[in-house]
Amino acid sequence: MSQKTIEAGSTNTEIRKFGMRDKFGYLFGDFGNDFFFMLVMTFLMVFYTDVFHINAATVGVLFLVARLWDAFADVAWGRFIDTRKPGKNGKFKPWIFRMSFPLVISGVLMFVTIPGMSDGFYMAWAFVTYIVWGTLYSTVNIPYGSMASVITSDPLERTALSTWRTMGAMLASLIINVLGPLIVFVDNKIDANRMLMAAAIFGVLAIVCYMACYKLSTERIVAPEKEKVNMGKTMKGLLKNKPLIFILIASLLFMVNTMLIGTVNVYLFKDYFSNAAALSIVGFIQAASVFLAIPLVSPLVARFGKKETAAAGMFLAGAVYTLLYFMPNLTLTPFITLSAVGMFGFAFFNLVVWAFVTDVIDYHEYLTGLREDATVYSIYSMARKIGQAIAGGLGGIAIAAVGYDATREAQTQSTLDGIHALATLVPAVIYIVVFLILVLLYPLSKKRTNQLAADLVEKRKI
């Protein structure tokens, strides 16, 4: 089912067949995205608390406000892109090229410190630069995510794109989580100058990756032009899209969990285990678990389906983190070893989640006859941003609630116990809830997904 020609009656004749070039191109997109996304998720909270000396609860409020703003910015940007006509380089790729430079510049500015400035200045600087960065992130990420649905319509090829996208994210995660702590921490404390240097280096690498994504990817599917549809009619169709609704909920919960773990783990290893350098080991293991799962994904999805494979991984992750909660006296090495099994479990959801998104975009077209890739993807991205908002807010508030005090040389035992619970019990509950949503509520099984792809091919011929 690979597209050799642009669909929907385009006058173009032959275009390159889907292949490894597209996979590498799509990998580079999230490689670039996650150089800064992972940098922010892993280090920005502790940078704000320990360098800017902003209260953790205040940082939580900033994250909450910024992500809620970004959620609506995603939808506005997605709707804007869907009103643009494709150019010679496609509908989505040009925006990646145009907006990646201001995005990276704003990201570096987040980590700038100016000697002699007051705490009030740094709080204002944090609010402005973080919100600007998040808004610009939408202008690159929405077209990038939407692009997958027009690169190919084949379900297995889309699973491959989702897998390669996750590989890109994991490569960035591996670099950030393994090298990052070694660069930015000095004597178990974050260093402002080293943090800025890391941001600049990773910013340059992000630009290189975005340009590779632009050059290597090919958009193949172009929907026929139809009369303009107002947002009310589009939203009516989205509300009937049950696969979208349930994958939104599952992804929102998963994102809350991912962001919360990213925030709490810094304090878990820095304070609970008194070993910030261990974050590098955890980062390496998390990336390694994904790469171990990669060769298993395609055969498992081909045999059982995306929903079924992801659900099994969620159940394994939930069971492991439950066990970790009930073993609070584990030392560093056995804790990391056991958590690696949980990481292997949730890797499967990470590897297929973007293929879920392309499926629900197709389902929207099946229900409404409207091909609105960017709008549907932006709704999905909006849910993820809300998840980030909740997690960012909860992370800062929860760290403050358990009594974390950046001015103390050592945290109290009750604070350490609270950090341990945040890092184990909360993820356990969330993973089990996502498992139940996939099994009981998400309707696109393997059989229904394959039938959907076939039905759309027939509808586009009419």
Automatic annotation (TrEMBL):
Subcellular location(s) per record: Cell membrane
Top-rank taxon, per record: Bacteria
InterPro entries: MFS_2, MFS_dom, MFS_trans_sf, Na/Gal_symport
Listed Gene3D superfamilies: MFS general substrate transporter like domains
GO MF: symporter activity
GO biological process, one term: carbohydrate transport
Transmembrane annotation, as ranges: 24-48, 54-75, 95-116, 122-144, 164-186, 192-213, 244-269, 275-297, 309-328, 334-357, 389-407, 419-442
Keywords for this protein: Membrane, Transmembrane, Transmembrane helix, Transport
SUPFAM superfamilies for the chain: MFS general substrate transporter
Principal location: membrane
Stored Pfam families: MFS_2
Membrane topology note: Multi-pass membrane protein
Residue ranges occupied by any Major facilitator superfamily (MFS) profile domain in the UniProt entry: 243-462
GO cellular component term, pick one: plasma membrane
PANTHER family xrefs: MAJOR FACILITATOR SUPERFAMILY (MFS) PROFILE DOMAIN-CONTAINING PROTEIN, MAJOR FACILITATOR SUPERFAMILY DOMAIN-CONTAINING PROTEIN
Protein name in the entry: MFS transporter
Naturally occurring in which organism (per UniProt): Domibacillus mangrovi
